[in-house]
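Write out the 3D structure for:
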Amino acid sequence: MVYHNTIKYPIPDARYSDETWRAKHHFKEEHQHDAPLRRSRDFKPVPWGTARGMPNYRHSEPWLNMKNMYTLMNEHHHHPTKWFKKACFGALFGFINGQIWFAVAPINGFAASKLFAAVGEKPWSGRTYRMLKHTAPRHMAMGVGVFLGYDLIMEFLRHHDETNKRPKIVDHLFAMSVIGTVGGLLATNTPRGAFQGFLWFGIQIGFCTHWIMEMGTYPGASLAKPVSFHYDADVTKEEKERIEMIDQLDILTYNLSKDPGYGMFQINQKW
């Protein structure tokens, strides 16, 4: 059984901390576990939110999903939800940058005349919608392909494979090279364009983005100065240890992602 979290209940009886006393009086352990994600078919199979461990007869599942919709932005485990969010982000990124490129890009006169004829000239007739309908979908699809494609390739290479000895930069460059090669081939329909996309996007952009990613994910990288914690007088020792544990987990997670084989026993002939 996998538990999502643990909580400590405040018990006024000081003897409760004594394990023998708890066993004698049939109390459970001091740290009570939260309800797990799903223990059996009697519990809700919702992927996130406060419905974990809730019996099936309590509420309808659509109501629960809507009730917990505010947690959608923080969902990082449910794969379809995660991929949908990444696709939406890629579409928005492609839409914004694509429209900027459309505004400044050179355009063929014949193609421009066809576009503006399709858009029309009558005010308040949906001209903006027709303009976006003819220009935005291609850019949005490119954005979805880049961002979602990167996530899928990286998950294929590294999901549940945290103990591999391959540096993360190798997987990052491989994903960027695949995206650049496919993008160059689709843009030019020539082997030369595919090779140019591989060189520019896979090598040049790949190294730059990996450096930015490593600097951005470093614990405390978004802070101008080290954080100073000021605890209230009623904060317990356990709560302080919890904050310190979160900091240590951030550091360990970063090192595990950055260094190949971090935390593994290095078995050699000396053993």
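The first helix runs from residue 19 to 24.
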